[in-house]
Amino acid sequence: MRTAGFLPPADAAACRILLVGDDDQTRGRLAVILAVLGHRVDLAASADEALRLSGVSGAHFDALVTDLIMPGLNGRQLAARLRKRAPGLGVLFLSGHADDLGLGAEVLDASTRWLRKPFTVDQFERELGGLPGIVNV
Q: What is the pLDDT at residue 57?
C-alpha cells in the first residue's frame, strides 16, 4: 500500500527519493529522516509497487533507497530494472544480510552504496550523501 509522500519545506531544493522496504515501521522512520534532510519521499512496500510508481507518467527519482532482501524481487533486481529506465540512478541498499546476495566491490560503483543494519542516522546521511545528485538541505 502506498503511503502519501512526505514533502520538504517549500523553500528546500529537494531531491526525490524512492524508498522501498517491506517493514512498515522501518520505512516510516526512514521516510521521516529523509524528509527532515529536505528530500521529497515516495514510499513503496515492495519492488512491484516501486516499479508501478516509477512507471507513472512523469515520475523521476534522484535516488533509490531500498532493502536488499524483500519478498518477491530483491533490491538488486529492482535497481537493475529501474536503471534500465534511468541509467544514472543512485542506489543505496540497506541490509543486515548483504553477503547473502554477493554485494561486493564488483557491484558497488560511484552510484551504488550499501549500509548494513543497524545503522545510525549519521551513517545513513553520509551514505545517502555519497550518491551522485543528492543534496542534503
A: 64
Looking at the domain assignment, is residue 3 inside a domain?
no
Structural domains in the chain (count): 1
* Residue type, position 18, single letter: L
Give the C-alpha separation, 16 to 34, whole Å.
10
The CA distance from 69 to 65, in Å, is 12
Tens of pLDDT, residues 42-71? 999 999 999 999 988 667 899 999 998 899
Residue reference for cell 521521516 = 32
Domain of residue 94, residue span: 16-129
Distance CA 51, CA 32 (A): 22
Query: Does residue 117 lie within any of the structural domains?
Result: yes
Q: In sequence order, which residues have a C-beta less than 8 Å from that of residue 18 and are 6 or more positions away?
A: 42, 44, 50, 53, 54, 61, 63, 64, 65, 66, 82
Residue that the C-alpha cell 543534496 belongs to: 135
